[in-house]
Amino acid sequence: MQTSDKPVPPPVFCADDRQGIFDYVVAHLLQQNERSTQPKNPNRCAKNPNRCAYRGVHGLQCAVGCLIPDERYVGEIENGDASTSPVHEAIFGKNASVPPETAMLLFLLQQVHDSCEVASWKRTLKLAATEFNLAWRF
Question: Residue 117, SS3?
Answer without folding.
Answer: coil
